[in-house]
Amino acid sequence: GESVGLHLPTLSVQEGDNSIINCAYSNSASDYFIWYKQESGKGPQFIIDIRSNMDKRQGQRVTVLLNKTVKHLSLQIAATQPGDSAVYFCAENMGDDKIIFGKGTRLHILP
Amino acid sequence: DTGVSQDPRHKITKRGQNVTFRCDPISEHNRLYWYRQTLGQGPEFLTYFQNEAQLEKSRLLSDRFSAERPKGSFSTLEIQRTEQGDSAMYLCASSFEGASGNTIYFGEGSWLTVV
């Protein structure tokens, strides 16, 4: 079965607000996690990644937090924009760069 | 565009026919992956190559599926005797070998509809 999962299938956020998308994983040996964004009809687009020796990593308007104690991962998007509407996947790198995806969270940006 | 390229983007075929998808990875990448994605689901791993060697195949890859990467560059994924359950988006991705955790980049996918 899947070792990576998402807490909520759909998230609606007002434009300009911050979004938080959560993810849980089950394999305590996992050491590398990735967030992907997938727009309708397109392939997954790399957003940000984090290794298990880190708790936090920041990119442009995005922050990933890793809590190894509870095996939880989150993606924070600051000041959401209409272009942020997509499905977001957390993924676990299983070694040899094979990635296992969860089912995704659809983010709706409300005007 | 120097990203991962897939062809065709869309394919409609009759049940029982064979189809082939092509993937051109990012030029310096030596690892190439195939995934399958159905509506409402995350991509599922099918197989991957390191150069021309196919190193792992998922249980999802039945004997009707075959993937090749003959020269370690482009890859093909062939589905023989297609079934309606094969309808999905087939995603190709590539990465460069290194320490675990190198970024995997995806193409835009090839949509297959079996009628």
According to DSSP, the number of beta strands of chain B is: 11
Structural class of chain A: mainly beta
Q: Show unreliable segments of chain B.
A: none
SSE ordering of chain A: EEEEEEEEEEE
Shape of chain B: globular
Mean pLDDT of chain A: 89
- Structural shape of chain A: globular
**Assembly of the depicted chains:** heterodimer
Helix content of chain B: under 10%
Structural class of chain B: mainly beta
Largest interface: A-B, 25 and 26 residues
What is the overall number of helices of chain B? Answer: 0
Strand content of chain A: over 45%
Distance separating the two termini of chain A: 38 Å
Portion in beta strands of chain B: over 45%
Average of pLDDT of chain B? 92
**Rg calc of chain A:** 13 Å
Low-confidence stretches of chain A: none
Largest sheet of chain B: 7 strands, mixed
Give the helices and strands of chain B as they follow along the chain: EEEEEEEEEEE
Taking the alpha carbons of the first and last residues of chain B, their distance comes to: 33 Å
